[in-house]
Every structure is written in C-alpha cells, then in structure tokens.
Sequence to fold (271 residues):
Amino acid sequence: MAEPTMATGACLVEEELMQYFLTVDGQPGTRVLEDGAAVSVRTPHVDRNRIFRARLSPDTADDEIARLLQPFRRDLVPVTWYVDECSTPSDLGARLVRQGMELRYLWTGMVRAVGEQPAVGAIPSDLHVTEAVTVQEREAWMHLVLEGFGLAQFHDLEPLLVETGVASGRWHRLTAFQDGTAIGGALLFAGDGVAGLHWLGVPQMFRKRGAGVLLTCESIAVAARLGYTSLVLQANPDVVQLYLRLGFVTTGDIALFDWRPGIGSLTVEPD
Fold:
C-alpha cells in the first residue's frame, strides 16, 4: 500500500492530533472555539490549553492571533499553539513570537501505511503484547507508561490515562510483557478515519529488549484490524530514527509555541 504524500500525511497527522486532544480534554469545563480558522481548547488544567489547526489569512493573521490568545491572557492561564506544515500563513511561527509566544518543543510528524509489518528480525519468544482492558490492567499500564516517560510524580495524569476513551472504545492500551513482567506500554488512538500512536513508554530498566519495536508493530497490526489504512504519530527528535527504521516517513515539523503568564506552572506534554 502506498504511503500518503508529504502534504497529505501532514494533514493526517494534524487531524489525528486534534481528535486525540479533543478526546483527552473533552471534559466538563472545556470550551471550544471553532470559526473555520482555528480550534482552541481551554480546560481547567492550566498545562493542557491548546490552539491548533490554524488557517489564518496573511492579511488578518496578527489580529486573529491576538483574538485567539485573548481569553488565555485575560485569565492568566498558559496556552500552547501547534504549528505544522498545514498551518497558514507560512510565517505563523514568526508572528506568534512577535506576539510574545516562545518556541518550546519541536516534534516530527510521521505516517506509515499499515498494509505490511516492519521487517524487525527475530522477536524473543518470551516477549508478547496484550491489551489492557480491566481497571486493574489499565492502572498497571498507566503506571508503566508514566514511569517510561519519567512522569511518575504527575498524579493528575493518572485518572486521565486510566479512564479516557474507555466508553468510546477509542483508546487501545497495549502492554508488552517479557516472561510475565510488564516492561512497556503504548496507546493506539482510534480516531474518525485516522489512527495514532501515543504514549509509547518503556522504563529505563527494561529498554533495549525490543519492547518499543514490538509495541509499534502491534499498534500497526491493531490499526489494520480496525480497518485503518495509515498510522500516524508525533515523534520527539530522539526517536525519529527508530520509526524511520520501522517504515514510517516524515511529514514535516510540528512546532509548539507557549505563552506563559509567569505563574510558575509546569507544562507536561504526553508525547
């Protein structure tokens, strides 16, 4: 199966990211602004306020940026703006900086057709992946991925990771086991028309055993069984080469610009 073009892939990554965050943040108290130019999600959690999928006209972009940022500045809550290959105008990032936002993170969008499994060589016979379904399994998965990301102390993330997407069936929590010991976890998000890989975390003591590769392969297989044609992800710079080896292709940068009102809050991104 052919890979999407870079432009098509970038928009797939953007669409999946929007759907994922709307699922994560779609809790009571969420406010969504949607006017055809941008989607803004504002939640009671000050580290999870987002503006993404911006389509602004070059002639009015500066005024639109100020309008979208105004609710956050008024209430003195942080906000993160996602800029990708599909955002307009092309100098959106520079305009955000001029309005007081700061580039904090740079991800790489990636996409892969799910028709064939990666050629990964021999997998240890005592390594396998199962889906965490029960509350106890989901809690164990949550602790595993938080430890893998070095976020075990962020207890506010625990209910989010345990409960989100259960009723809808959109979150497939995958756990890698070796000889009966859980050694890694990943999340396959089943969106409308697009699937995404998130929260792939392996604690330090269990790395270099093949868990990350096997979890990625299983995510590809589950996406195929669910009827998707592509799997997308947003990769940190240190794991891009791993995903390239597994058959993903890049779709361009995703730049995360933050505005912080100086209230000592800490931003935590899940990917």
